[in-house]
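User: My instructor asked us to take a sequence, write out its structure as tokens, and then describe one feature of it. I'm not sure where to start. Here is the sequence I was given:
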Amino acid sequence: MIRCLYILFFLMPLCVLSQISTTNSESIETGQFKKVKHYELADVTRVINENEIKLRGANNLKDLLIMETGAIFKYDKIKGWNFLWHGSAKNNIMVLIDGLPFRTYFFDENDPQQIPLDNVLRIEIIENPQGVAYGSNAITCVINLIFKTAQHKVYKPSLKLQGYYPGSFYSNVSIGRKTTENFFRYSGSIDAFSGINGTDSGRVLHWLPYTRVNNQLVFSHKVLQYMDATVGFNNLIEQKTQLGYPLPASFTAYDREIKYNVNTVFASLKGRLTRYYNLQADMQFFKYRRFNTLYLKDIVTSTQTEVNDTSLNDTIKYSGFFSRIVLSKNNKNNDFNYLAGFDVTTVADSYNPIVNKVYQKNSNTALFAIASYKPINRLILYFGLRLPYNTKFKSKPLLDLKLNLKFNENFRLKAMIARSSKSPDFDQIFATYLTNGFSIKRNLNLMEEDIISYHYSFFIKTKYFTAEPGFFSYNFKNGIELLTDPYNPGRLVYRNVSEKKIIGSRLNFMLQSKYADVNLRIIYTGNNHLANLYNGMFFFQETYINVIFKIPLYNLNFCYTGKSISKYGYMAIDNQKGDLAHFIGKYYLADAVFEKSFNKKTISLKAGFRNIFNVKNINAYSQPIEYTGKEDKTNYIIAMLPGRTVFFELNINL
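Assistant: Let's start with the prediction itself. The structure tokens for your sequence are:
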């Protein structure tokens, strides 16, 4: 069975991500190291430019990712959104903001809903392993958000007001000033959601009223002619509430309140030293705080009393530091170019800095180098090597080999093999208890999970359309999972798990004309990533379509984005009887946005619908081995979840 699947996926590739063929999307800056033509890379890359971000009405990174192919989503009531790219485990993707990691891969607190997009110039989604350049956890995808700086167009003050019916409001004010050598920007946003009683908040999948405030200050100074020195500060304050159900035969209920306060200071120096040599130096420091408190509420008077129980309440305080220096040589007339650098990452527990005489601190440093070589005019080879060292667990060298072979002007072959890794997170290294009362016995011999992956795609580009079908395969080894201690049922233990695999095929098709852009993407993936838990296979398939119609005469645009996801798998219930439980989950998401601009986009109005199709979720059904050929629907659990239906936005650009 497995062998047949491998043959099927290899011979019938369906697809991969590409990018829109616009001027803004022609070059990408992978991790901000240097600009490269996207079709000359061996990586599968999609660029979402500023116009598409605005037209899709997205306020934060979650709004975009949830509609992207490959992004199966999962929501944690406390930690927020996680994306299981290509059906793998969470935290297998890395988010970069101007080349800097969004917080860090050392702990599990990265919610993309907390990243606003108001001042983003474009977003690059690289659907291949990038561990050599960015380190552990850059396995299935790297997402790089590029903000406006002094090197970009003049930035004008703007005001944005957005509302949903029912229950949501978003506003942003941005003030910028650009001179010959300096650039300044302040951006502040308020995102509030009141909740919808008894149903769902749309794409959140859980009813959680929240208020989120983001403030950012950025100052950029042009050094000489081709270099920017940038400093900035970002603050996030968020509060959300889980409202509990009343206790039986009483007028009381348990509510949970979660508060976040995150402060980040960053600085960078980026640009050309000489005609062929470039320098990039980055520094980032953050303090992350999360307060999780349980309240007993009288539902008649609405008075709340804090529950003083450490097993039910928890406080997390982390501080982190990241720095990187990269020197690169890029001479178009030379067949050999390279970049080399090192980075240092440190994360520490600020709330409990020492536990049992052990400092709750984890550091990682690494040297890395990437070289490109053109043995012939039609072939580009990329070689990468990373040598990491960690203070708390065993690290392994990371490497990759990529090629881009041009058969003619319209047809290319991309291929790569990479060795990546996934590091134990902060809790896996230091945790001593869980909030559900279980204690943890830590594995003292933790090491990075080892991932070997293979990728290929065929890049086809003509005047009006771009297509890229391809195939990918991941092999995970020596991962970590939580299991019940066989000698103490009240204790959980970490254990290195056995091999896991993911195989899949994907297709991207892009058609562009003066009045319309059409983007179709499909992914079909099978994996046994959950085999250690469910003793079976897990599959998912996705279909995505994005259609944009433009009527320049009336300054009118229309954007429709739709996505369909199907997940299914099985597990053995009884090894002797051979009974199987089959799991199915299906999701249908769609957005439609209309935009009308006035006075050359000084004022623009948008209106539309979010989540046009309800989310349908078929959880599970049971199927015995004596199956007669008809589905037994008595065990289906179907949830129809209405979302945020009406959407309205006003933009004023002075």
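For the description part of your assignment, you could build on this observation: The chain has a mean pLDDT of 79. Try explaining in your own words what that tells you about the chain.
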